[in-house]
# Entry
Amino acid sequence: MSFSIPEAQPIDLGPQYRAVRARAASAAARFTADAVAIRAYTIEHGAVRPDVWQAFRETGCLGSAFDGPEGAGLLGAALVLEAFAERGIVLWMPVLSIAIARAIDRAGPQAARTAWLPGVASGSVHLAMAATEPESGHNLFAARTEIRAQGDDFSVSGRKRISSGVDLAERVLVLGRTDGGHTTVLVDPRSPGVTVTEVPMRYREGVRQYQLDFEDVVVPAEAVVGTPGQGMRVLWTFAAVERILTAALCTGSATYALDHAVAHAKSRVVTGSTPIGAHQAIAHPLARLHARAAAVRLLVWQAAAGHDAERGQDAAGAAEAAKVLASDLAFDCADHAVQVLGAEAWDERNGWLDHYLDARLSRSGPVSNEFALNHLAERVLGLPAHR
# Structure
């Protein structure tokens, strides 16, 4: 069961995108009953369950997200991630891999494109991100990690926290300060000098979370993404893509919660013979959330299409707006589903507590809603910045 979202939208999905969405929904439907077990498998084995990952790879969204106008682009990837999340299968690593691959594709150099894009496109490679730090959080300009030129190589020293899914990743994109700016490099987390420490967060986003300590970690020059000293240009592309795909996961998760709450409200009888969904105290919040979901979904699609069309600052603003509204929607839907489901939601075997906490985390990460609102206030509305 899934909601029927109105087909009228400000962007025309067209037959190509409708087909992408239909294929993804069909693939994900095979695993609906296993959603809790699929999440547990990733945590226990450090890999996405093979049959699920194969079905996801076959959608083609990994490669088409950055293969130019002939592919389905970022919108196609958003549709696929959303469709899987609607079935309770939230795949976080593709968000990071696609966002980093898209940044590599835009910023280069060609050696990095050749080394990493085919693996991401085929699904044989996962990439992770290490940008935030304990002292500065999402203020990346205040990062203390240093990336220094060392002959023909570079040396990385510093601490990053929180980094998701490092145990699944072949490389981690690390942002650090360098002479005259910032630089981004791809680091093998198994390299000498890297200490990987798990942070006990009860496996938020369905993956393990880590702190990374770098002590004079040597990386070759070909590990640089973009141009030394201009790493923030890499991060701008990464951040916009990450925001949009996170929003797609959130809208899918919101629908998953709504579907279950509606089904329960239709069947659950507490007094008399009337299901609880007949009461407006139950029905109206669900109806309002359904209306919000329809609107937010369209914004997410529009933000993805705008990024594919290279609309610059307009696309960046849309990405931030989509992330804020979709994460708020996901949390409100999860929260109300817990209220409607009652004791069923608190039975840990059903996975609802994880769904609820993941939805709550989406308002704080991968960027806090406050930082996203700062961008909208300053860059879109032109309001004065607090310095």
Q: What stands out?
A: Residues 1-10 have pLDDT under 50 and may be disordered.
